[in-house]
Amino acid sequence: MFASMKATSASKIELSQAVEMLKAIAHPIRLSVIDLLNTKSKAMCVTEIHEELQIEQAVVSQHLKILKEKGVLDYDKEGKHCFYYIKNKGLNNLLNCIRNCQSC
Question: Tell me, what's the pLDDT at 10?
Fold first, then answer.
């Protein structure tokens, strides 16, 4: 009886984390940032992302902060620059799945 309760609780936590991640990526700018990082297959700094997407640097920074807080992205600091990359490699599979669904 207790084993099944523990499994249910863990599943609720995992579902809650999944919901938070999906909320984080469910914004056009954040999805564009993730797609850019996925396409470039390299870490990028705020300035590079801002130039590629032609979005104000402050706006990009705000969205990167949200993606970092939700565990979608992480960064490496080199000098005064932070280079952002996709932390959850499974996210690439999710993006591919979304693209496949759009073509149906």
Answer: 59
